[in-house]
Structures are given as C-alpha cells and as structure tokens.
Design a protein that fits this description.
Arc Repressor Mutant, subunit A; WH_DNA-bd_sf (chains A, B); HTH_MarR-typ (chains A, B); homodimer; Nucleotidyltransferase, domain 5
Amino acid sequence: MLTEGRAGGGVVAADHVSLRRNNLSVVLRHVRAAGPRSRARIAAETGLNKATVSSLVAELVDRGLLREGRAESERGALGRPGQLVELDGSAVCGVGAEINVDYLAVTALDLGGEIVTERRVPLDVAHLDPGTTLDQLAELISGAVRVVEARGGEAAGVTLAVPGLVQSTTGSLRLAPNLGWAELPIVDLMQERLDAPAYPVRVDNEANLAALAAYTELRKDTDGKAEDIVLLTGAVGVGGGMVAGGHLLPGGHGFSGEVGHMPVAPAGGICGCGRTGCWETVVGLTALLNKATDPDDPVRDPSLDVEQRLAEITRRAEAGEARTLRALADVGTWLGIGGAILVNILNPNALVLGGYFAVLGPWLKEPLESAIRDRVIAPDGGGCRVVQSELGFTAAVRGGALISLDQVFLDPTLIGRDATGVAQ
Amino acid sequence: MLTEGRAGGGVVAADHVSLRRNNLSVVLRHVRAAGPRSRARIAAETGLNKATVSSLVAELVDRGLLREGRAESERGALGRPGQLVELDGSAVCGVGAEINVDYLAVTALDLGGEIVTERRVPLDVAHLDPGTTLDQLAELISGAVRVVEARGGEAAGVTLAVPGLVQSTTGSLRLAPNLGWAELPIVDLMQERLDAPAYPVRVDNEANLAALAAYTELRKDTDGKAEDIVLLTGAVGVGGGMVAGGHLLPGGHGFSGEVGHMPVAPAGGICGCGRTGCWETVVGLTALLNKATDPDDPVRDPSLDVEQRLAEITRRAEAGEARTLRALADVGTWLGIGGAILVNILNPNALVLGGYFAVLGPWLKEPLESAIRDRVIAPDGGGCRVVQSELGFTAAVRGGALISLDQVFLDPTLIGRDATGVAQ
C-alpha cells in the first residue's frame, strides 16, 4: 500500500525520544538541502517553532555537525540580522572505496559533500586474486581514514562499490563477471583487513552508488526537487542505477540494474554472459573500439588506461576523423534503442550518462536523443532529458561516500555521543 | 538522497499535532496490516505506550474507523482477556471506476478491503464518444455512492482507472490508443457529471492501480512483508505496473509501465503504435488469437466479450487441442523473453500475471519461467517468482478503490470531523 510506502515500507510509531531524533534529522537535512541559514528561517521553513529549532541547533553544534557561520545579510530580512548556521565539515566523513576492472579508488567526503581526500590507483584487478586486491584497497581505505582523523574527524562508515551483483544485506558479492569474482563475503574480508573497525563497512553495486551520486548532483540544479533518474555507466560492461521517488531501486534481492543484457541486437555479437545480442555488445567500450579502430590500433594497447584511450578517441572525433564519428553515431543510436526501453518502462525525468558515455557524450547525445524520440510512447519522449554526468568515473566512489554519511543524516545522535548534547 | 526518500522525497518536521495525527495513522494502518487485536498488543507491536494507544483507539472508534470486536482468546495472553479492536467497515468506502476497451466497472471497498458494491457493464467504448462513456460511468459511480450512503457511510474518494498515459497531477488523460482517446481533462469532465462532489476524484493508469491491488493481495500471503512486484496486464495491449520499496513507481511524469512496446521481436508484426516488433504484437490477446485460430473461428466473433473468448480458449487447452497448446506455449515463451528484460532491470520479488495472462496462466507459466531462467543474469533468476493474480480483470478497479482509501489511512482525521473525537 502507498501508505506504508511513505513510511519506508513499515509502520513506524513516534514517541518523544524518536520525535527529538527525527527533528534533529530534519534540521540537519534541511541545512544540507537548503544551505546556510538563520535559526528563524529554519523554523519558518520546517514548521518547527523557534525555541525548538534553537535547542536542536545547539545540540547539532555540540555534536560537531553544524557550526555558526557568518551573519545573515539577506535583503528583506526583518529585524536584526541573525547568525547563519551551516554544516560543519570537520567532525565526520563518509568513505567510498571502489574496485573496478582496471583501478581502485577511494574518496572521503565531509558532511557537506566536499572532498577531504581521494586517491585512484590503476590496477589490473581482473588478473589478480581477490585477496591481493582487497589488501591494496584496505591500505587505501586506512590511508583515507588516517587523513580524516588527522583533521580531528571520524569516519561514519565505508561503502565498497563493486561492478557486479551484490547482496547488501549479507555483505556478499555474488558475481562480478568482468572481475572474474564470485561468491565472496567481501564485507567480512574487508573488515578483517581493517582490523574490525568501529565504523560500519557495507557493499553496494557501483551503478547504484553512481546513480545516487548523480541524483545528489542533479538535485543541486533542480532547487532540491527530487527527480527520478536512470544512470547508465559505460565501461567494458554497461550498468544501470535507478533512483525513483527519492530513493534507490535496488530490487527485491539487490540485483536490479542489469541493463547491459537487454537483448536489443539479435544480429549482434556474443556477450560476456554467453548470450547473443546483449545491449553491452553494441554499446560497451569494446564495441566502440571494435567499430572505431583496427585490431593493431595503438588506442587498443592494453597498457593504456581507460582515460588515455578516451582522450585519444576524443582527439580523433574533434579532428573529424570519419570512422571515429561513424562509430560514435552508431553507439549513440544503439544507446537510444536500449535507452528507449528504459524510458518506456521507468519514465525518468533524466537519463544520465556516466562512465565513458559521459566523456564521449558530445558525440553520443544527438543520435541517442533522436532514437529515444522515435521510440518512446509517451508525449515528448516522456519529458525525459539526457544529461551527461560531470562526475565521470568518480561517481560510484562518491556515491559510496554519500551513502556512508546517510546514517548520520537519518540519526544525528550517532555522532558525538560524548559531547554535551542533551538526550532529549 | 536516501534520507529524504524515506520521508517521501521531502523534509517533514513533526510537531505535537502532526505527531498525534501520525500516531492515529500508525494505529489504523497497524490494525489493517496485522488484523484485529487488543490495545495492549497494539502498544507492544507499535512501541507506543498503552495509555496513548487507548486514547488513539478511542478517537478512531469515535470517528467510525475502528470498532470493538470480540474478546481476545489467544493462547498465552497474560492477565484477563482484552477486548479486540478491528476496522469498522461501515463509515467510509473507497470507490474505483474503470474505463476499458470493452467494459465499464465500478467497485466500492470498505476500510477493510471488503466489497460493498460492484458492477461491470459491457460497453464498446472504442466506438463511442468519450462524453457518452463518461455519462454512463458517472451513473455507475453515483449508484455505488448511493449504496455506500444508504449503509450510513461516506465515499472517501473516487479513482478512475484508464488504459493509457495519464497525468495524475493535472487529472488529464494524455493518450489512450486502444480507446482512441487523447488529451482529455478527464477528472474535470467527471466532476461536472457528478455535480462537483464533496469527495476527491482522481485518475490513474489501470496497470498502476492493478499493481497496487495485486501488491495488497500478495502482502496477505507474505505476513505483511513489502515485496517489489511487476504486474503485467494482458489484454489487446499489454501494460505494466510496478511497486518497489512499498510504493508505486509512476515515473517522473506518470508515464511509466509502457512495457508493451519493448522491441523484442524485430521479425514481428506491426504494432498499434506504428512500430514493428513491439512486445504486445507477440503476447497481446490479438497475437494469441491469431496464433491459435483461423480468421473465421467463432472465438473471434466480435460480439463475444473477453471472458467468453477466454473460456473457449481454456476449454480447448483443457481438451488438449494441439494448435491452442502450441499458441499458448509460444506466447508463454515470448512473455518470458520480455519478462526477463523487466527482471534484469528491476529484480522484483514477483512477476504477477494479470488480465488474460492470469486466466491462461496454467499454460503460460512454464514456458515463461523457463525463458526467464535462461535470460536473467542474477543467480536463480534473481529470486523472482511468477504469480498468477487472482483478481483477474477486477484488479484495476479494486486498486482504484484502495488508493481512494489511502488518504484516510494517512490522515484518519479526514473522516468523522463532526464526531466527538478530541483534536489533540
């Protein structure tokens, strides 16, 4: 029933302790969404009374989550200017850590979403055993947590981003075909390597996390309006992440977003999954390289990383090289053929291009939009716009850091329990 | 951000008035989901204290939404047996009203989801002008409301179910190809015909409403656990409705679920939408009839309604008629080919067969499941089971009635404002 849906799928009763916690969360989330503002304005905008807001802000300042900012200087403010309060970036960070086919990455974001530290290390993950890769990732994570702690902050949690089928509830990776990994208790393995840390460790699918990051970015451009989005991550494989009604759609068992295997090209090639004509056989990076280049083309040199490869493709497209442009137009059209299926099913406000699709977006976008217009049943292509993500290959790790911060925004009392904040 | 998502996409602050309203809603929804029970048990299960529950129940009884039931007789109940409280079916009804290609239907459900009145009238809607059809539907709705009022109840609202693209927010029907309707302010037109009624009138897509009804039914079998579902409605066209995380996925502009136009059969026939090879050209009812029968077969007689047609197909399948069985197996396989796309994208717990797919489910299910097992990337077909809806062609109108009741469950103070219930 919709009713229960609004309450997150269950019936939630509120007593006065949870009311206080809820209102702390409301104020903290409101300042994040709406930006620095006075206590009076927070009261007006949330419907809470001013005395309550003052007490809530005091507790959030005590917990190190908000801080006093500059004095209000807005036109039309009545009475004497109030002091603004803003998110305090120093107390707590969320950490995202990504394992992908050819790199590892880690990012720590403060409460305001600002980068505190980030690293990215090329690594031929598909040819290493999982233990070695996880050892190296654990070192990157520990390094990031040390940077956070050196600033006097604490890690709210670490979220691992993996390109594969993940069971978040049990912390296990079921299958990551492009890594060659299967059935790994990845959260347990990482917790061992981190010496059973105080912060929680989770795992999620990289396209889901990238979608979350893209959604958060887009919201800044839509005045905080929650839009439905479908994010497509283009790499060797193609993944999809969906946000609807303000939250991720993980699916009943966490396996949603396997868009790369839509059978759109019956005459197409053999897919890594063993089937014929999957979408990723016509829009994956390998398909683009096969269309745009000969086998001995230097752009296919295995020692190049993906960004070097894409820089070369971009250079050729900018130079008007005919074969490159034809290949990009072809991939763009196929992207629209599969994209139209997603738009017909989900009717998102935006189809967001991530990964290599974002980098080559200037050439993919027009044939993609044209294919969507032709194939979507709803008027005006369902009102769906095509957007290039500005996060590129950092979206998943950023989404991991954001989701790690989520628990703090839901329950600010998790942080600074030793502070002087009152309990009620 | 997930955080806001949990609160329905926005930041919601709670004061003591909204706390009371929230808790009335919690108790009412809990009794609906969990069944008749004592005040003590409601307190234990919701986490509210007993005195608060007694006061909330008293107000809900005053408002005519709960009533005293039989005495508790459960094993293991401590102390003297408590009085059970249960939903009171007499005060309020939700009304659903459906326009489909060849019939109109109306259903009024009481708070407990029991049918108070229902009617279904064959009508060749596609060959009438919209005004005539809406006149007839308005009469059916008025008749149902009179039945509700004659029992001393009131209508909480009316929801129109339409097989087409609907903009719920503006109450307009954008396009219903199989009715031949486009750009109708359908809610306004109906409100005029109902003489500006006191209850709200809404419109939604029939597959969305059918999905909501199917979800509500399934929840009874899963101990109230909220599952993600995709419902497929099989008629001349094929529609999809999706429930995830406890709520409908309407899409950014309300146009989701256009699954009938997935391009799965490039060698297939011409679709009503003008394209070639859409899913409904291989799984719609017309496709089945074309495969199973010759043009002069009496089962294609235009004067038959869909249930008579399906009864005859069922008779032939039960008799082991080879051509009918081949046609059903073929449709089942195509159903699985498109179904696998949906399961790969959405990973629902259940794929629910509605409309004619439900009626002929015994023959469609096995080839469908086999096609899904072959094509879904996640282990064990993503854990998705195939379920035949028991609601058949009544799902949409039932979903309309349920969604009409939703506002009452969200805010019980909407009903019985003249009752003696205290305001706080």
